[in-house]
Design brief:
Distance between the termini of chain A: 45 Å
Number of strands of chain B: 6
Order of helices and strands of chain A: HHHEEHHHHHHHHH
Strand order of the largest sheet of chain B: 1-2-3
Oligomer: heterodimer
Radius of gyration of chain B: 23 Å
Number of strands of chain A: 2
Helix content of chain A: 55-70%
Helix content of chain B: 40-55%
Strand content of chain A: under 5%
């Protein structure tokens, strides 16, 4: 491990960190614009041209808002909650392969922070930690709505993680690896796993909605019942962190769906264009981001179309539909693999 | 969590289980208005509920006893503010009943149009907000644009939008103008398609159906025992509609269906309202097309203001104008009850006059006040989310609630 290698990695880490934040920031803007578009409204249009500076204005406002910590709250945990939520959501993007391998001055630089050979497992580990941010925040605020939101969030996340994990097992059975980099590599051209594993993709997507607390699974924070859910008592930038974490989660899970099932930075005819390696890689990265944006738009589209589930219906869907479907998919995949082998 | 103090021990079962008390309201995003529910929760399941009312008690009846009759109309605006014209016109008709004034057909038809527009507006609010409370915000924004057009039409008739103070005792202060007619025609042409779009967005949505079917059920017997009326009673399967049972304002001239539910659950309430909107459109169309010629006011010069032209030129008209405005016209002695089919149910006015310039006693039959009594029974044993949906679907309006 030489010094240059460290510099490469640090640059990539910083860039990915900034890009995640930037996209999360502009997702809030996009969310409002998409909502406005769907609801026949105008949306933010005051700050800058087309309201493009709205996220900055919001951020500034968050910082200047009064910070309220309820007197009966556990102060340490109350502050830890949003920090943890933000931390875990930003940590997940480490294993995502953002592009192929760049070749600068004779050195190969893969556009990935760490190609762990247990990348998929790492993701699940970190995502499971994410629920602690919400749980701790909801509990520490010493508010009944907050507590109810936290209970809902934790049970929802635990139930849907199972379906999510099992759906990926069938994918792993086909790909034969847990490394995200290799999974993307295998999807050359149009060999996207969504065609081989449509059911797994469907389950994964539904569970991703649940993991991100997006409609129709936004029970932990549903306004109509729980006021604000786990962040009822939060104000100023701590509230901003929770909201931000949600958008970062949305971005990261879009990136996962794109790289696991939609070929990541791969796209058809990538090699037949006759471009130099670096241009191809950068083009691939661009394509990857387009896929991510498509998913983010889909997240928003669903949010502004569907109502939300009830708590028991949500649990039933998780345990009685998603889990058996995922198990069925594993058996199907196993059977087909055996049949091909013989 | 400490044990709920207001409920004491659970004596029925004798167990020492500790429940969670949740104050739903008085200020909560989904209590549309100010009322409080103290819920006793077992996890998310509601064990018991205790509604509290009185947060915006405004003593309408008492205020009314100190006012000349025409000044009571603005008070009725503030009851169910989602369909204020029905309250106004109901009150006008009550006073007219006491006066025994016959209305020209034209006034009846104009009133029918306004009241049915108000019914549509009220049902739109109720059903779209039911969507909002289940998390579907988009239909709400679509339909609020349509409600806005209805409010624009009110504006053409009376100059106001929410608290309309529409019409006068003895008719309307002016005829429907050209703009109103144009707006109504566009509304009749464009509204059905947009409404059906909203219907397609929400009604058959599987998630929405799961959320509302079987939620907040009430049987026809229980509903009648509570003396429910309006959409909430019809959803339970009783085809009682004041417009048909005791027709007023020439409702007998129109051909319309009373939608009836079967289960009395939230979905049935929603569907009854949806279908009533369609029926109201039919009524408006028929009333508008069959509008007879004639005056927009009745022949009762002691109560209906004379024309401004005459007030400025003749002394008799000026005197009457002054007397009416100062509320110095005495009404006959009598006792009347008149009820109209409000958007929310039977809206009754019980009026006793001792012959003076103001009512001797007055009582409004507020449908919401009755529905809210049944609320704890409806939500017992259900989940927290169901309680919200039930409250929205009963269309409990805080302004009307406090009696």
């Amino acid at each position: 491990m030489d010094f240059l290698y460290l510099i490469d990695k640090s640059v990539i880490v910083v860039v990915i960190f900034l890009i995640s934040l930037l996209i999360a920031m502009y997702s809030t803007y996009a969310e409002r614009k998409v909502a406005a578009f769907m609801q026949d409204r105008v949306g933010p249009n005051r700050a800058g041209p087309f309201g493009i500076l709205q996220p900055l204005a919001d951020g500034g406002k968050f910082f200047f808002k009064e910070e309220i910590i309820p007197s009966a709250a556990n102060k340490f945990l109350f502050i830890l909650g949003p920090g943890l939520a933000m931390f875990t959501s930003l940590m997940t993007s480490v294993v995502i392969p953002w592009g192929g391998t760049l070749n600068i001055a004779g050195r190969d630089i893969p556009l990935q922070v760490a190609d762990l050979n247990i990348g998929v497992l790492y993701v699940f580990g970190v995502v499971s930690l994410g629920v602690y941010g919400i749980m701790i925040g909801g509990w520490a605020s010493n508010n009944k709505y907050g507590l109810l939101g936290a209970i809902r969030a934790s049970s929802q996340m635990i139930s849907y993680e199972l379906g999510m994990g099992l759906s990926l097992i069938s994918l792993v059975m086909v790909s034969g690896t847990l490394s995200l980099g290799e999974i993307v590599e295998q999807q050359q051209g149009f060999n996207w796993y969504v065609f081989k594993q449509p059911l797994a993709f469907f389950i994964f997507m539904v569970c991703a909605f649940a993991e991100c607390n997006r409609t129709p699974f936004d029970l932990p924070e549903c306004e109509a019942e729980l006021v604000g859910g786990y962040h009822t008592e939060y104000s100023s930038m701590k509230l901003g962190f929770y909201m931000f974490a949600e958008y970062v989660n949305m971005f990261v899970s879009s990136a996962f769906m794109a790289s696991l099932f939609f070929g990541g930075y791969q796209f058809p005819f990538i090699d037949s264009l006759g471009l130099s390696q670096n241009v191809t890689v950068l083009l691939g990265t661009l394509i990857f981001f387009l896929k991510i944006f498509a998913f983010i738009f889909f997240f928003m589209w669903v949010r502004w179309t569907l109502p939300r589930f009830r708590y028991d219906q949500l649990m039933r869907l998780g345990w009685q539909v998603m889990l058996p479907l995922a198990l069925l998919n594993i058996f199907l995949t196993g059977g087909v693999l055996l049949w091909i082998d013989n | 969590m400490k044990e709920a103090t207001i409920f004491g021990e659970d004596q029925a079962t004798g167990n020492d289980k500790v429940y969670n008390t949740l104050n739903l309201g008085p200020t909560h995003p989904s209590t549309h208005g100010i009322f409080q529910n103290v819920l006793k929760l077992d996890g998310e399941i509601i064990v018991d509920a205790e509604p509290t009312i009185g947060y915006i008690h405004r003593a309408f009846e008492k205020i009314a006893e100190k006012r000349p009759y025409y000044q009571v109309t603005p008070l009725t605006d503030r009851m169910n503010y989602c369909s204020a014209p029905i309250n106004n016109i109901g009150w006008h008709m009550t006073v007219e009943k006491l006066l025994q004034v016959e209305m020209p057909k034209k006034v009846d038809y104009m009133r029918v149009i306004i009241m049915e527009l108000a019914r549509i507006a009220d049902h739109l609010v109720c059903n779209t907000v039911l969507g909002v409370d289940s998390g579907a915000l988009t239909g709400f924004t679509y339909m609020f644009q349509e409600r806005e057009r209805i409010y624009d039409m009110y504006e053409e008739v009376c100059g106001a939008r929410l608290t309309t103070n529409i019409g006068r005792i003895g008719g309307f202060e002016r005829d429907f103008n050209k703009d109103f007619r144009k707006k109504l025609e566009t509304f009749l042409k464009e509204f059905p398609a947009r409404f059906e779009e909203f219907d397609r967005l929400l009604t058959r949505n599987r998630i929405f159906m799961d959320r509302v079917i079987g939620v907040g059920k009430i049987s026809a017997e229980r509903a009648l025992e509570y003396s429910f009326a309006g959409p909430n009673l019809r959803a339970a399967g009783v085809d009682y509609d004041v417009r048909v049972m005791t027709p007023y304002s020439s409702y007998q001239d129109f051909d319309f269906v009373i939608p009836v539910g079967t289960d009395g659950d939230t979905f049935d309430r929603y569907m009854v309202r949806q279908n009533e909107i369609r029926e109201s459109l039919k009524i408006i169309k028929a009333a508008y097309e069959g509008m007879p010629e004639g005056n927009h006011y009745a022949d009762c010069p002691e109560f209906y203001l004379p024309k401004k032209q005459e007030v400025y030129t003749t002394i008799e008209a000026l005197i009457w104008h002054f007397k009416i405005i100062m509320g110095e016209v005495d009404l006959p002695k009598g006792e009347v009850y008149h009820s109209v089919e409000g958007a929310n149910g039977e809206l009754g006015f019980y009026l006793i006059s001792d012959g003076g310039r103001q009512p001797y006693r007055l009582h409004f039959r507020r449908p919401c006040f009755i529905y809210y009594q049944a609320y704890p029974e409806l939500i017992r044993g259900q989940m927290l989310s169901d309680a919200i949906m039930t409250m929205s679907s009963m269309n409990v309006i805080a302004g009307e609630l406090d009696a």
